[in-house]
Amino acid sequence: MLRAKFMPPKINSAVATPADLGYTMPAEWEPHAATWLGWPHNASDWPGKFEVIPWVYGEMVRKISVGEKVNLIIRHPQDETFARRVFKHVGVDLRKIRFVMHPTNRGWTRDTGPIFVKRKLPKTQTQDARTETAIVHFHFNGWAKYDNWRKDTKVPETAAKLLGKKLFHAEYNGKPFVIEGGGMELNGRGTLLSTEQCYLDPKIQNRNPGLGKKDIEGTLKDYLGVTNIFWLREGPVGDDTHGHIDDICRFVNRNTLVLVRERNGKDINHRPLEKNWDRIRDLRLEDGSKPEVVELPMPAPLYFDGVRLPASYANFYICNAAVIVPTFNDPNDRVALGILGELFRDRPVVGIHAVDLVWGFGSLHCLTQQQPL
After folding, report:
1. Where do the structural domains in the chain lie, given as residue ranges?
2. Domain 17-372 CATH superfamily
3. Residue 294 bridge partners (DSSP)
4. pLDDT tens digits, residue range 312-335?
5. What is the reported pTM?
């Protein structure tokens, strides 16, 4: 019976979606029960630099675990032994870590991990009003680019079983629907941002062949409970995901967002990112209001082995105890931290060195996934 509880639902028109049942996806700055991370093990993601990556994780976990639990996905007991050694060296309280055994291909948990939705339950005669969370499975497929993803795509199922949560399988007309957590940015009140480059391009890394803008928007509304969707144009050069929003534009509260800008007119990122600034003028939130848009600088071009890397300060992660921001040994590190520090007054904004991490074409936000209270 327990197994049947987590089997994919039968495909028919009567299946209720999360939106039908009153679920919505909370904003990242809302209180967390935990953060999900996948312990790094795929050296091919960081060729020549893999040895330092577990220590970057150690610093991330040290900051995150001050304010919440960390659910760390590991493949086998040897991973746990190694992780414990790293955490002990950097001063992590191991009582805050929950080791979750599950085979993985990679550790980019923003895209492969459980995406949580939440609803309010009515007050009863015996209980006060309370909330309930569930998990949406968006059927990760290696960013429609890589072949080794079949272990990763099952992580939401393992999380649902572990936590005893309802699991919704995102679909369109009976077919799995694909979107990654890094490809959507929400204010928790009904507005979702994404990019045309990532999800509406029919030729490059097409996650949902045959689906148009209307189909994709309708499915996102069904499974995330959003009511208002806005599309920016594209992301910086070097982004392996082909335009994830979390390198470009982020909400810092329900009506304020930061948007990256490249002021150097000779930089290859200048024109693509200016298209987003042209477009953001038309953004209206779910209540019809115009958001405040704050400029976030880009670091100077960062290369390794002749490859331009997608270094961006927008790839920060908001946890209970802090906002952790990638830094790149760049003069703009201080500028970006200062801007975000002014915007987040309820928790400290701290930098984490990410020059080695971004060689994997991702950074702090790409590795994390929040579990709301």
Report:
1. 17-372
2. L-arginine/glycine Amidinotransferase; Chain A (3.75.10.10)
3. 258
4. 999 999 999 999 999 999 999 999
5. 0.94
